[in-house]
Amino acid sequence: PAISPRHDERRAAGAMTTSTHVGAALIAGCAAGWCLRELWLRDAARREAEAMVRRGVEAAKPEALIAEAQVACFHDREFPVSSSDTALVLIDMQTDFLSKDGRLGKNYSDPRVKQLAATEAKVAALLAAARRAGMTVAHSRSHRYGADVRRDLCVPTIDPTYDLVESCRPLPGEIVVDKWTFGAFASTDLETQLRRRGVRRILLAGILTNVCIMATAVQAVDRFFRVCLVEDACGAFDARWHQHAVELINGPQTLKENHHGSVGLYFGEVAKLSDVETALAKCGGGAAV
Fold first, then answer.
1. DSSP for the chain?
2. The model scores a pTM over 0.70
């Protein structure tokens, strides 16, 4: 039988109504999803703010400075260390930086690269002392070089120059993070891994003092980890850059009319390797060695 024009009209109207309902449902669903997302983000921000307040309160307690040993620091200050809650964080001890064959090292003169490479022996000695003390150890590797980020590392591949130099290779169980930011916290799960192990304080060393070391120090204290920079176990391509970074990290901490009571939180204490080794020998397994 022939379909009447009125039937066609009713069918078209029905299809239009269904389409309208579907469109309205989609819009309502998107709006509900956006609202839920906003509520979740606001709740997450609130919970993070509350956690930071708690960490600040804990950091301000006098007992937060009780430890197995005290590292003698610049300006007659001290930094508390214990094997149970202090970690050694080593930044970017990679062939890419420490060799003329590396991606960044090839851009600098032989004297500058050799100056930086001289840091390696002291970092290796610091690493050995931390291991003897039974401390948590964390290593970062960087696939950022100035403004360039290595795209090939979207799929993890560890080539010889990207990897850590042999004297600073991680042992099983040590933390390793790969970062694309200068600081080791912003683009990795380093904070989560350190907190799982009960870490509250950080001994910081590696390269480059004026770039990734400094950025990591600031990011660490933003998260209420106390920081002590092991000055002669850090390095830069220019001694002036290194010294300037050390002053920026330690200056606010030692200015007497400012926050000098916030040990290692503004932005860090600074110590020599020999003084750190002396303190670590009193910690954990180090005391028995």
1. -PPPHHHHHHHHHHHHHHHHHHHHHHHHHHHHHHHHHHHHHHHHHHHHHHHHHHHHHHHHSGGGG--SEEEEEGGGEEEEE-TTTEEEEEE--BHHHHSTTSTTGGGS-HHHHHHHHTHHHHHHHHHHHHHHTT-EEEEEEE-EETTEE-GGGGS----TTTSBPGGGPPPTTSEEEEESSSSSSTTSSHHHHHHHTT--EEEEEEE-IIIIIHHHHHHHHHTT-EEEEEEEEEE-SSHHHHHHHHHHHHHHHH-TTSSTTSTT-SS-EEE-HHHHHHHHTTSGGGGG-
2. yes
